[in-house]
Structure formats: structure tokens, C-alpha cells
């Protein structure tokens, strides 16, 4: 009888402890949105630059804006395919970070522009957002033009633009996540600017 009673008490204690853990509120992290105004302005500026550049040099399909590069004067099949692949990469990075379309369900840093707080769970999800620059590294392993000299030129130029230092540890503050996002979008904006120069050089 004593064993049954003891077992019941232990079970109740376990249930209470488990429930308290499950019901524990998520830690809320506060920040001053005005301190981050400059970074948010930079993020908005570079997103607008990407949009402007891509609207200028790409055509839309039935599914996407920025579907492929407008017609250029080249017989270089590899180069043409690379340009269009880069258009898709830029479009993906833009949509991951902007609020323009609901194509991606990830949390957006821009969602916190006019807020002063974020939960620890939301911060972790922002930190784990797909880092689209990683996708661009594959181009170092490919031949990007029928002209090998041109292919190497493109790789060198892109590496100079894309060069960034990866952070191996998790970000601890919203400001760190915002800075990383701003840096990423600035790189994508520079790539869109580079692609515009390439487009007009081959038009």
C-alpha cells in the first residue's frame, strides 16, 4: 500500500514538473528599435536597389517576376545559362529577406522593424534562416562561359563581391542577426549591380 501511495505521489510530482516546463513562457528579449534605424535603412536601401536592377534587366514569366535575363547578343550558351541561374539566385535571396511575396514562410528580420522585442525562439529561427549566399559557392566549381578566360574572370569578380566571413557560432542578440542580414543583402545588391553591368556589356 505504501509503495502504491509513494508511486502515485512521484507520478503527480513528475506531471507537475513536466507541465511547468511546457507552460514556461519563452524568454523575451528587448532591444531599442531606434538604435537599429541605420541598419534597417541600409537593408531597405539594398532591397530597393536589387528590385530596381532586376526590374531593369529581366523579363517575367507566368509564374515569376525576374524569371530570366532580357535578350542579349551572345552565342555563348554556358554564359547565357549562368546569367539566368544567377537571376534565380538573386530572386530567391530577395524573397527570403523581403516582405514582397509570401513565397517563403520563414520569419523576416523586417517583421521586427517597428518592434522593441523578440522571443528567444524567434531569434533562433531568424538565426537559422536559409543563408542563400552558400548556394553561390557552387559556381566556383563550374565552367561559366564557353570562353575559359571569361569564365575565370567571372569567378574572380564574383569571389571579390561574395567574400564574407561565416560566423560559426549562433547569434546571441537581435542586433547581430540584423547586422548579418544587412550584410548579406548588401552583397546580393552588389551582385545584381554586377549582373546589370554584364547585361549592358552584352546587349
Shape: elongated
Specify the biggest β-sheet: 2 strands, antiparallel
- In angstroms, what is the radius of gyration? 24 Å
When the domains are counted, the total is: 1
Number of discrete helical segments: 6
Beta-strand fraction estimate = under 5%
Pattern of helices and strands: HEHEEHEHHH
Q: Work out the helicity level.
A: 55-70%
Total strands: the figure is 4
In terms of structural class, how would the helical and strand content be classed?
mainly alpha
Overall pLDDT score: 82
Low-confidence stretches: 2-25
Distance between the termini: 90 Å
- Give me the side-by-side strand order of the main sheet: 1-4
Question: What can be said about this structure in brief?
Answer:
The chain is 57% helix and 5% strand.
List the helices and strands and how they pair.
Layout (H helix, E strand, L loop, with lengths): L1 H21 L5 E3 L6 H21 E2 L8 E2 L7 H21 L19 E3 H8 L20 H15 L11 H29 L1
Antiparallel strand pairs: 1-4, 2-3
Helix pairs in contact: 2-3, 2-6, 3-6
Description:
- This protein is mainly alpha-helical.
- It has one domain.
- The protein has helices at 2-22, 37-57, 77-97, 120-127, 148-162, 174-202, and strands at 28-30, 58-59, 68-69, 117-119.
- A two-stranded antiparallel sheet has the order 1-4. Strands 2-3 form a two-stranded antiparallel sheet.
- Strand 2 (58-59) and strand 3 (68-69) form a beta hairpin.
- Helix 2 (37-57) runs antiparallel to helix 3, helix 2 (37-57) runs parallel beside helix 6 (174-202) and helix 3 (77-97) runs antiparallel to helix 6.
